From TrEMBL:
Lineage: superkingdom: Bacteria
Pfam families: Hydant_A_C, Hydant_A_N, Hydantoinase_A
Protein name (Swiss-Prot/TrEMBL): Methylhydantoinase
GO biological process, one term: glutathione metabolic process
Residue span(s) of domain Acetophenone carboxylase-like C-terminal: 511-673
Residue ranges of every copy of the Hydantoinase A/oxoprolinase domain listed in the record: 206-494
GO MF annotation: an example: 5-oxoprolinase (ATP-hydrolyzing) activity
Amino acid sequence: MRLIGVDVGGTFTDLVLADTGTGRSVIHKVSSTNADPSIGVTQGVVELCARAGIAPAAVDQVLHGTTIATNAVLEHRGAVTGMITTRGYRDVLHIGRHQRPEHYSIQQQIPWQSRPLVKRRHRHVVTERLVPPRGEVLVPLDEAEVRAAARALKADGVEAIAICFLFSYLNPAHELRARAIVQEEYPEAFVTTSAEVAPQFREFERFTTAAMNAFVGPRVRDYVSRLAGRLKEAGVSGDLQVMGSTGGVASVAMVAEQPVLTMLSGPAAGVLGGAWAGALSGRNDLITFDIGGTSADIAIISGGRFGEASARDTWIAGFPLLVPMIDIHTIGAGGGSIARRDAGGAFRVGPQSAGAQPGPAGYGRGGQRPTVTDANIVLGRLDPENFLGGAMALDVAAARRVVGAFADELGLTPEAAALGILTIVNANMANAIRSRTVQKGIDPRGYALVAFGGAGPLQAVEVARMLEGREVLVPPHPGITSAMGLLTTDLSADAVRTCFQLSTALDLPRIADDFAAMEAQIIARFAADALPVETARFTRAADLRYAGQGYELRVAFPADEMADASGLLARFHAQHKAEYGHAFPERPVEIVNLRLTGAIPRPHLGAPPPRAGGSLEEATVRVARVVFGTPAAPEPHETPFLRRELLPVGQPIPGPAIVLQTDSTTVVPPGCTLTAEAGGNLLIAL
């Protein structure tokens, strides 16, 4: 099969075409068309097919990572959204919980209050009430009030409506009936229910998740529909599928209904790409390290499995979400991060970024503030004539000017200031990694750092040294690793159901019935998309906590343990010990949520053909002065600049060295050893 992976970034749209039969792959980059990304995606697909020498009709599947939903929330540019909720709960979205982003500040901006997803005038209440534990009807739904609310929202120009009732996670009947009434009164509106998106307890998070689904719904629905249409017009007859936040891909129809599931679409693909690259070198304990122009995304893979964010850690733009996501930590540190002195005179780098326009001064687009990229230029680590494969000439004089002015302000030489910029941004990244490893009982010294993104291979070795790591892996095409990750996963769908059972009085038959109902729900979803449901496989898990705790841990719950939960409880105690440093085996444990993931296998990107390589002499472009060391003691070294595709395979090359390729530059400092592996990775031993 011929598969195309497309990852849309703020500056470039990355594409890869893989033929699973021959193992051949072709990569391509085009400028992103931010006003309508579907234009750039379609253009890139057509050009990639031409480069590969095939017709667009020969493509079997297009897998897409998108930031449409994320950007709509970050920029607060979603649909005009309304809500219909239980009487007395109009202000749940505003009140939130007792936690605040900054616990001790009295002047903070609280996202759900300062920029609400649903304005108060668009929140309508209706009479209804269900009650625990099974969702029995206490007060019937007042259908006339629902009709009146729908008509009022239509008159107010609302584009999307979220229906959020208090106990709908126990029984969705009232929400489903209200949805049907709204669709009768206002068929043009995008309508979603909290029970369809996040059927879990915690009304603030559930209401917010449903509101966000409505807020981004029309924009995502229209985008995927427009993209599917453009691809069809271009002659692409293969299926279009979209990456979700869990690392699986979903059909266009599924994404159009629940676009909130794509919030981490692009970063999730990067984690999968990092796992694929690690497998090429036989490594399955990995730290994925994806650095772009503005941010760095970090994830941990242990034993070949990545973690899923818990309910307390799942936030987008300050809003809590109750949807499954890969545990990805993002910080404001990238190639465009700006160096500055703060109000107290301290040396800072980021989170402010120069962005794509004007970008770093060294890009020659008018940037006037020193960035991480400018620091690398001043230190000689980027080749002005071979940046992006020669597609962009760097303005060394402009980079030296802005870094020099900053150095004068600090009383340093330009080289010392540049090394200071890199030291600070690398320390920020290392601290972020420690927060996801050391603080969670994981020793990062036993993990390989997989560096990708345009700037990842530039910074990775020095970050790994701060972590006392042993090795860094650079994938074959680090700049498009996220696009490649899209081709390594399966179609998937998730279901969740709140359970509330204590270990002292477990009703295992009821749990088995709940899992069976969720499995039927997922199979029906796959069948609606005409997918081969007979190939579906399922993974079970549960959210557990000690009785009285406020948050849960997710624990595997295999199907063969339905008759005896002792294994489940033992895993919970062990996981609690690893996460928090203690466990209480004698205490009762509460099963809060049951989770089921269904996956349908699809063709995957295989390993690239073995590299032939060349010789060190053939690979050497030039030898030039590159500065390493510390801000207190800069050390210039005569350093070879090497073309990656010509590196000798299996031959250790001592640092320093700079490795050039179209989509990134890899820095190998003194004291390290570089080896180009036959499988395609660069392995840097520290």
